């Protein structure tokens, strides 16, 4: 993912609300979100090149999501960070225990932010800063820097999310904020080691270019009675709409709808 916005215990009826965009090269093979045949409790998309994922939930209410930390000078040929999300979703450790276990192996991956939840607690960790901590109730945002770093699209997204959660179960405001393609002024852009034209392109919540851009927009929210809604819009090159999949699940009860 390149933008994750979430509300954790910030609404009386929806303890977890997530709005996220995955930005990637359109040539990278990807599977749309579905329950995995080899791990049928996991609902997530799949990176068909490296085998991991960027965001998912399980029938038991586990949640995991990841963004890459953008620092081209430090990137090396290392294992896919998406494996960390997949391993947590297919496991049973608490977020705290999982993060403690993988802390020593952080150098085996390029920079990342990892968000992990089990329905009772939500944790964030990064191998760049070496931090890991539980999150208090509130509104959070992360793109390709550390959690809540004041990037323009993070700040704008958090403000929009605060307003959008009051409209649930209508999720249109959540998808609207994810489709914000406004480019922010140069004076507000960070210097992350990519050319300035890429800094401009990547400053938008919804990224559009011929070869690289937002591949999927995901809205996930959990009601206080345990029902989880997972809604994913696929985007094709040229910002054309692809398939849209919707799932509702609680424990082992699942209802789904697929739209083409």
UniProtKB/TrEMBL annotation:
InterPro entries documented for this protein: TANGO2
Task: Give the highest taxon in the source lineage.
Answer: Bacteria
* One matching Pfam family: TANGO2
Q: Which PANTHER family match?
A: SER/THR-RICH PROTEIN T10 IN DGCR REGION (PTHR17985), TRANSPORT AND GOLGI ORGANIZATION PROTEIN 2 HOMOLOG (PTHR17985:SF8)
> By what name is this protein known?
Signal peptide protein
Organism, scientific name = Rugosibacter aromaticivorans
Lineage, top ranks:
Bacteria, Pseudomonadati, Pseudomonadota, Betaproteobacteria, Nitrosomonadales
